[in-house]
Amino acid sequence: MQTDTARENSQGSDSNLDLSATAPGQLRVIKRNGTVVPYTDDKITVAITKAFLAVEGGNAAASSRIHDTVARLTEQVTATFKRRMPSGGTIHIEEIQDQVELALMRAGEQKVARDYVIYRDSRAKERATRAPAESAVVAHPTIRITRADGTFAPLDMARLNTIVSEACEGLAEVDGDLIQRETLKNLYDGVALNDVNTALVMTARTLVEREPNYSFVTARLLMDTLRGEGLGFLNVAESATHHEMADLYAKALPAYIAKGIEFDLLNPVLATFDLEKLGKAINHERDQQFTYLGLQTLYDRYFIH
């Protein structure tokens, strides 16, 4: 089946950011690689048409019924976003795909919608398989972060995706793409790195009432901030993902003991233990057991700042 996006999409070419994508009052699309392009409905028309052809066969291309249905469904999808954002705004590609599915279902085209859903799922699995090989930094085209020293750097979309994906691991009924989309809406060019972390945490926190598992997601996103603060102070690393901590605890524990002794907070006898071995024994997966309220309380009341 060739149904390639509003799905896989492309909305627009794979070239660099089109200036019209940043014009005020316009609808824009965030592609999966983080680039922003102008919203156009021709890609939606093509995707829906391919879905119909996959179900009804190539001869259906000449059917006026299908042409009329595709045009009507495309108009409905576009009208939905214009109604939501009359002054313009940014839409993630997944949101477009969701609306295409809804439009097909509401039109009574269950077979086409089912085929569309199956294809989306297969493409998602393909991307997950390719993900380890695609680990290069993917910079957001319009948003830069401001470092602590005042310099600018591109917002690393690959790391953002990793942090959110790790936060959602093993949890039912949570949506990492939703968190990313809503977070990006609250960011701007020149945003401080700490504010990016805060935006992630606050976005996930607003979803807790919808699904309790978001409390774990929020805690894990907050944990990324804590890792950065702690590892940076110990001169072990500037930041780390959850899975990187499997190796970093062996380095962090000796550095932590040394700092504690330096500040007269820990007994120097602790330095005589095999701290690297103890650090390797720390199970980093237990970091994922905190709820947001529990971790925030520890951070506010009990951790040394």
Account of the 3D structure:
- The N and C termini lie far apart (56 Å).
- The protein has a three-stranded mixed sheet.
- Helix 1 packs across helix 2 and helix 5 crosses helix 6.
- The longest helix is centred in the first third of the chain and has 21 residues, at 64-84.
- The chain has eleven helices and six strands.
- The model is unreliable at 1-24 (pLDDT under 50).
- The protein has two domains: 19-131, no CATH class; 139-301, no CATH class.
- It is mainly alpha-helical and 305 residues long.
In short:
With 305 residues, this protein is mainly alpha-helical. It folds into 2 domains: 19-131, no CATH class; 139-301, no CATH class. The protein has helices at 42-56, 64-84, 93-106, 110-130, 157-168, 176-185, 193-205, 214-233, 245-262, 275-281, 292-301, and strands spanning 27-30, 36-38, 89-92, 139-146, 152-156, 191-192.
